[in-house]
Amino acid sequence: MTSGAESLYQDIILDHNRSPRNFRVLDGAHRIVEAYNPLCGDHYTIYLKLDGEIISDIAFQGSGCAISKSSASVMSTVVKGKTREEAEALFTAFHHLVTEGADAGEDLDQYGKLAAFSGVSEFPARVKCAILAWHTMKSALHSDAKTVSTE
Questions:
Q1: How do beta strands 54-63 and 147-149 pair?
Q2: 104 SS3 class
Q3: CA 120 – CA 101 distance, rounded (Å)
Q4: What gap in Å lies between CA 37 and CA 96, rounded to an integer?
Q5: Is pLDDT above 80 for 55?
């Protein structure tokens, strides 16, 4: 990865950490799921509104490290307006990116803002930080579960 790309990715993470998008309580949410990582203390609540198969709105509140907060923020921006199926595909792509890393020679541009987290796979302790909000969103799409934990 070029230093220009690394700088851009770092800027995306820092920007979403400082000014998280969709950081609010979502009145009228159909699903509300809490997320907790006991190893580092990241704790979020994900609010999800569905219009049939479409995620019409999503928001989150809570606190955590820069990786977890920026990941939740980016996640909320990329899944809003998507179908459940599209959100699942984004979850799968993001999960692969942060757990396995990009494949050799793979064009990271296909991931859009998600590419900012491509380096997380090199730091196994940070993977749970990056994926916490994503697992919570996926749980909210499929059940009325109230809590998701990384343990």
A1: unpaired
A2: coil
A3: 8
A4: 20
A5: yes
Does the pLDDT value for residue 5 go beyond 70? no
60, 44 Cβ separation under 8 angstroms: yes
Structure tokens at 5: 């790309």
Strand 54-63, strand 42-51: pairing: antiparallel
What is the average pLDDT score of the chain? Answer: 91
Sketch the domain layout of the chain as residue ranges: 3-146
> Locate tokens 């697992």: which residue?
135
Domain 3-146 is found in CATH 3.90.1010.10? yes
3-state secondary structure of 121: helix
Pull the structure tokens for residue 90.
Answer: 């984004």
The pLDDT, as a whole number, for residue 109 is: 86
Q: What is the pLDDT of residues 81-118, one digit of tens each?
A: 999 999 999 999 999 999 998 887 788 888 999 999 99
**How long, in residues, is the chain?**
151
